[in-house]
Amino acid sequence: MVTDRIALITGVSRERGLGYETAKQLKDIGFTVVITARDYDKVRTLADQIGAIAKPLDVTSDASVAAIARELDDEFGRLDVLINNAGAFFDFGGNPLTADMQFVKDALDTNLLGAWRVIQALYPLLEKSDAARIVNVSSGAGSFSDPVFGLGYHFSKVPVYAITKLALNGLTVKLATETKDSPIKINSVDPGFTATYSAAEKWGARPVSEGAKGIVWAATLPDDGPTGGFFRDGQPLGW
Ligand SMILES: NC(=O)c1ccc[n+]([C@@H]2O[C@H](COP(=O)([O-])OP(=O)(O)OC[C@H]3O[C@@H](n4cnc5c(N)ncnc54)[C@H](OP(=O)(O)O)[C@@H]3O)[C@@H](O)[C@H]2O)c1
Question: Active site includes 161?
């Protein structure tokens, strides 16, 4: 059944991932949710579990992104919420002096250009919503303010990943400036250190349901809500 509000989430291939949990929470509050992943079998299995709609989407592929834009246009004619959740290339222990440049390009292609590409392609559909929201799932690793994982701190041993998220935050600001006179709101959200992998749980990461709440918050902002910001749990974060 198609309900009033339609949301699309990228990078939903794992039951334990933030994308799947975000999809569940949006379904629970009445959204029609389209979940996407580059592996269609995986996303279809997940979609079946929660009554979502599955579609294949590789955010690094212009053709794949164009195809989903066409399909959404044909099926719904608009989009209310876009959540750019796809992200990877967590180069733990990496070193910018020796980082492989192909790895850097691939990381940027997914974490920065992936979101950018999808926003450009789906923007005409978001413009047809009366209150569109875009959420770029970022990370404290890409900020100067996070005292544990942030740029310049000891645990920020994920240089390539961190730089892609820093750039993603820049994209959020530039797009928000460009769209400030429209009803569209676009924000970056850091879900916090979240137990989407069992190793993270051992290091004290919080439950996935908590990390996803801040994403849902930004996806459901009221008309007087913020745009162009960076948030965790609905609270502003330093850049
Ligand atoms: N967990 C945390 O503590 C934490 C903290 C801060 C930020 N984040 C961010 O939260 C988001 C979700 O992460 P997660 O922890 O839930 O891990 P995850 O389950 O690994 O989520 C990342 C998703 O991105 C997908 N992806 C990678 N390349 C893609 C591409 N080219 N096209 C489409 N999808 C692609 C992956 O799919 P495949 O299976 O196909 O690779 C996977 O489904 C990421 O952006 C991450 O940077 C997580």
Answer: yes
